[in-house]
Amino acid sequence: MTTPADLAPVEPELSEAEKQFNDLIAADSRIEPRDWMPESYRKSLIRQISQHAHSEIIGMQPEANWITRAPSLKRKAILMAKVQDEAGHGLYLYSAAQTLGISREEMTDQLIAGKAKYSSIFNYPTPTWADMGAIGWLVDGAAICNQVPLCRASYGPYGRAMVRICKEESFHQRQGFEILLELMQGTPAQREMAQDAVNRWYWPSLMMFGPPDDESPNSAQSMAWKIKRFSNDELRQRFIGMLIPQAEVLGVTLPDPKLRWNEEKGAYDMSDIDWDEFHEVLAGRGPTNSQRLQRRREAHEEGAWVREAAAEYARKQAAARAEVA
Ligand code: FAQ
């Protein structure tokens, strides 16, 4: 006779390694490179961490454009330090991805071949000095909101890299805020320039959090694995909540007439985000996509001699050590 138990779907036996992985995730512990992990977890981490690394590296371009034109020596020094920090973030993240078994060369090749994604935000131009303020305030602000929870990501090397990155990003955000504050306390033309930059960067900065939750194919699994801790929409809402009081202090207007707190929903009402624009940028058709990639390719080619020299130096050092040994 067939019993209900016979009809129940047979759960596949979990291996010891899988059980251990699931237990570590459930206990909020860290997965380290030496630990067994499901192939899909490894692939998803490589996907997210490499995209994040590429974003930091491409993200140097919009601001580097202003290093020689910053309005004072002090501003030049600060901006140069910030752009260098972004390079450092890219390097920590490439290193974290390498612990998952992908090489730096492979990731770089994917980027310069135009096959890899990087954040949509870096495909917008920076025509005025106020853009440096808006990038610091809005782009680094969004980055902090999104990345502080990543300090608790279940994969050890990623979470640890994020701790240092977030400390530096909060300095970046404050320097952007301070640029805007100074402009807003300046002449009418300076105030207009600051407001114009905020108008142009506000919506793209909201897109940094990714598609809406019901169109985010990776979120559910990523949250179950405790890589992501909050959904795209939750973080977007948190970011808006952070901006509103800061915009008041600055005296700038956020360019959304529908923006207001909805007590009943426990969330901000807002205008619709232009997701067509987001998809266009992701498809490589944003305002500066081709320019950003072209510049990255040139920098890679121009840097070939540095890589060769470093490899030769490392080879000589290793040979000298081997001789002594
Ligand atoms: N741009 O299913 P989801 C910075 C892609 S660093 C481009 O929701 P997920 C510092 C997504 O990859 C900024 N692509 O994906 C700085 C996926 O494609 P795939 C970068 C995007 O991973 C400041 C597809 O859409 N930050 O700013 C974007 O669960 C100033 C479906 O999306 C990080 O990378 C986008 N905005 O969530 C530097 C943080 N959004 O792979 C210089 C770490 C989504 O399936 C100057 N990453 N996509 O082909 C994350 O938190 C997540 O990966 C999200 C996306 C939230 C970006």
Provide a concise account of the structure shown.
With 325 residues, the protein is mainly alpha-helical. The protein contains 14 helices and 2 strands; from the N terminus they run αααααααααααββααα.
Alpha carbon gyration radius: 23 Å
Sheet-strand content, in percent, reads under 5%
Please give the order of strands in the largest beta sheet.
Answer: 1-2
The residue ranges in which pLDDT falls below 50 over 5 or more consecutive positions are none
Determine the N-to-C terminus distance.
74 Å
Helix-strand pattern: HHHHHHHHHHHEEHHH
Number of DSSP helical runs:
14
| Structure classification | mainly alpha
Number of strands: 2
Shape: globular
Q: Which tags fit this structure?
A:
single chain; 325 residues; mainly alpha; two-stranded antiparallel sheet; 14 helices; 2 strands; globular; binds Phenylacetyl coenzyme A
What does this structure look like?
This protein is an all-alpha fold and 325 residues long. It contains 14 helices and two strands, in the order αααααααααααββααα. A two-stranded antiparallel sheet has the order 1-2. Strand 1 (260-262) and strand 2 (267-269) form a beta hairpin. Helix 3 runs antiparallel to helix 5 (73-98), helix 7 packs parallel to helix 9 and helix 7 (130-147) runs antiparallel to helix 11. It is globular, with a radius of gyration of 23 Å. Bound molecules: Phenylacetyl coenzyme A (FAQ). Phenylacetyl coenzyme A binds next to helix 3, helix 7 and helix 10.
